[in-house]
Amino acid sequence: MSEQGDYKKVWQNCLKFIADNITSDSYNTWFGPTKAVALRDDTLYLEVPSPAYPEFLDEHFADLLRSALRKEIGPTAKLEYMAIVDNSASTPDQRGAIVLPSQSASPSTQTPTEREIKNPFIIPGIRTPRVDPQLNPEYSFGNFVEGPCNRLLRAAGEALAKERGKCTYSPLFIFGGSGLGKTHLAQAIGLEAKRSFPNKTVLYVNAARFQTQFVDARLNNDFNDFLHFYQTIDVLILDDVQEFSGKEKTQEAYFHIFNHLQQEGRQLVLTSDQAPSNLSGIQERLLSRFKWGLQGELHTPDLATRISILRHKTRKDGIVVPEEVLVHLAENITNNIRELEGALVSLIAQSTLGNREINMELALEMVETMVKSPSKEITLELISSTVCDYFRLPEGALRDNSRKHEIAQARQIAFYIARELTEHSLANIGSVIGLRDHSTVNHSCNVVKDRMLTDRGYKKDVASIMKILQTE
């Protein structure tokens, strides 16, 4: 049996035993922040940073803890948690102990804590927080028009939402270009999951807001509450995960949340403008987890789907628009759904404000003045050729391994223009224009963007090339 003054050594030996029997991620998350504070009458007092710890450790690690303590202290060993309520308290007796199950205690003897998990969405929290799912009712499956561009992902999303816990593809990773419906589909999954399972906690959050909450939690010493809040979610939807690029600490936090939810059989949905294999600035261990479930791409809708989208919107809004007008809009606005619906809204606004009938004449005028339709397709090959011509470089120079300044600079500009004027992935841009990988393309684009802020001549060159590409 260990001496009373050896509590630190006792706990260190326990931690070694525990570390040998669980994964490193679980160990770092749940045992890393613990601290032994006293050993009295075969009872080890352990300080933890949040009231959420005792309940979780009781459920998942009670047997392991009991074995470790009995190995170090003896068969009568007990453990009491000190969940900090008042940071000014300095002794175990002042901190409000929560008794873990042991030979003389059972889970039913646990007493409630005075402190609640802080909800980063500014809604009063409780041990199982009441969470506003942050979902827009307009983004339902009923308002999501199906077509060949999205049929697979829509079916997967509906199955996931209606049979939560039975689907085998978690996480669901949705990717595609801007304006193709990623957010709508992700929120539709959340709405259907909440409808099918009212008692489950569903939450939608975009990556930028998650990042802001994470930074605030660290500044306010609320990180553990932030972590445990997200670990209570049953269906977590994270939008625009590419925004995590380069944010190592945020990725670390999400990694622990992801692992916990996945191990608990919860559902994860993510969206991104790139496939996991093309994301840059994201830790490899996160990328590998993004690939565990189902990955699916939303494509640009075909003509029939575009017409169906316009029909659905006019019916929903109770507006009568001639079929030939809808077809004209769908034929001329092809980039993405957001632009298509925006054009319809503009058409209706012009009709209302100008007191004009919605007809082909008005549609022709609107398309001519508002829709930017290049007279020629801007291909990656055309961009490469135009950049070479502008800087008087040999055709194909951008694909050479030369490190000459003028070629490297031209290649970076070509990468930047391709990202701005086309919907191609970074990987495809790099492969076609310069035989480079997606991370090099992303870095080049950032270099060009930064230099344009300070070099007027350089900015003028980039603008001139883009103007050449966008005109006859």
What does this structure look like?
The chain has 472 residues and is an alpha/beta fold. It has four domains: 4-109, GMP Synthetase, Chain A, domain 3; 141-298, P-loop containing nucleotide triphosphate hydrolases (Rossmann fold, 3-Layer(aba) Sandwich); 303-370, Helicase, Ruva Protein, domain 3 (Orthogonal Bundle); 380-470, DnaA protein, C-terminal DNA-binding domain (Chromosomal Replication Initiator Protein Dnaa, Chain: A). The chain is built from 19 helices and nine strands. It has helices at residues 7-19, 24-30, 52-60, 62-72, 151-162, 182-196, 207-219, 223-230, 248-263, 284-290, 303-317, 323-332, 337-353, 360-370, 380-390, 405-421, 426-434, 438-452, 456-470; strands at 35-40, 43-48, 78-83, 97-99, 172-176, 202-206, 235-239, 267-272, 294-298. Strands 6-7-8-5-9 form a five-stranded parallel beta sheet, with helices on both faces. Helix 7 packs antiparallel against helix 8 (223-230), helix 11 crosses helix 13 and helix 15 runs antiparallel to helix 16.
Summarize the structure.
By secondary structure, the protein is an alpha/beta fold. 49% of the residues lie in helices and 10% in strands.
